[in-house]
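Renewal narrative, Specific Aim 1. Our central claim is that a sequence can be written position by position from structural information alone. The example that follows is taken directly from our test logs and has not been curated for this report. It begins with the structure tokens describing the chain, in the order in which they were read.
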């Protein structure tokens, strides 16, 4: 990229500051360095955090043609960049608590994409695919064949609590306070409830907090007594808070080998709903229903829902949301164009 001089550099930073989206930039001799955290140690985590929190998402190579050199064609990669931009840089949605953004990627995500995410400010952690040995888990959609790999997030015990988002998520306000929601705290497993002997052990305390999946047409905020939930005891695995734990991960991998123990139609979602079922030893906890909505509407956004589970390239239920999605996409592109120009000047 052609350098455009000190004056242009200052102008670029002035623009970034004026539009309120300037984020954390790491300098070394005038060159931006990727944000890298040693995933095996907590020593390199932000020291101003009283607790080791993280935002996290997952990018797999099965959602796009990874041989396509045009990065814009990979919508889930772009969605991941948008999510990172909103969590780290966008004025009204970025973290105020310096909570890192972690992206789990599979080994078939090309290096150019992993590098771009690091340059954006993300912590990129490569993980191995996770699959059942007897191949009985077949999701409804072919591209869901490797979503079980999302469960490797539970192996990242250098973090104490994590807010997990599917990459097709658009933010409407800062998410930091979700960690303060009463439902997101550690709770003890029920000592008087047992699990099947073939399912292995589970931790004595855990975190799994989220909101029930709402009906496409609903009130805001959604309420069970108004019939706004498909099933108030069932959650969508696109957004939840959890505590990484090796025992919990081993519990998941044990369940994966027990054919028929859960419905594989929505693979990781139904496994999680089984593991954290309401009547079980570790029932999932509710957080405020204003934190996230599946099937969002313009009314949800205008009323202040924190995050919208929808695809930036095509608003699903309410096309009136598309201009907002387009603006966030454009702002992300513009921000990083200015960012890159300023760094290379």
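The sequence written for that structure reads:
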């Amino acid at each position: 990229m052609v350098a455009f001089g000190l004056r242009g550099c200052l102008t670029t930073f002035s623009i970034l500051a004026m539009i309120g989206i300037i984020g954390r930039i790491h300098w070394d001799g005038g060159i931006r360095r990727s944000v890298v955290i040693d995933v095996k140690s907590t020593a390199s985590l932000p020291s101003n955090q009283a607790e080791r929190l993280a935002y996290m998402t997952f990018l797999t190579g099965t959602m796009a043609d990874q041989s396509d050199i045009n990065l814009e064609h990979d919508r889930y990669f772009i969605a991941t960049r948008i999510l990172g931009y909103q969590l780290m840089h966008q004025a009204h949605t970025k973290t105020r608590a310096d909570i890192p953004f972690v992206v789990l990627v599979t080994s078939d995500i090309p290096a150019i994409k992993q590098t771009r995410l690091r340059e954006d400010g993300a912590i990129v952690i490569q993980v191995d695919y996770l699959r059942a040995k007897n191949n009985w888990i077949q999701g409804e959609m072919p591209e869901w064949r490797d979503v079980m790999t999302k469960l490797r997030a539970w192996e990242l015990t250098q973090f104490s609590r994590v807010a997990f988002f599917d990459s097709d998520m658009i933010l409407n306000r800062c998410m930091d306070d979700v960690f303060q929601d009463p439902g997101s705290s550690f709770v003890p497993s029920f000592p008087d409830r047992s699990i099947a002997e073939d399912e292995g052990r589970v931790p004595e305390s855990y975190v799994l907090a989220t909101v029930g999946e709402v009906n496409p047409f609903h009130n805001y905020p959604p309420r069970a007594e108004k019939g706004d939930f498909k099933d108030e005891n069932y959650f969508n695995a696109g957004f939840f808070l959890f505590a990484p734990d090796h025992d919990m991960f081993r519990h998941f991998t044990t369940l994966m080998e027990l054919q028929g123990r859960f419905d594989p139609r929505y693979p990781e979602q139904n496994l999680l709903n089984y593991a954290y079922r309401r009547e079980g030893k570790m029932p999932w906890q509710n957080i405020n229903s204003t934190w996230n909505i599946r099937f969002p509407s313009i009314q949800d956004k205008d009323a202040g829902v924190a995050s919208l589970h929808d695809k930036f390239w095509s608003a699903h239920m309410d096309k009136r949301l598309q201009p907002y999605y387009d603006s966030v996409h454009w702002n992300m592109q513009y921000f990083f164009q200015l960012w890159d120009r300023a760094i290379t000047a």
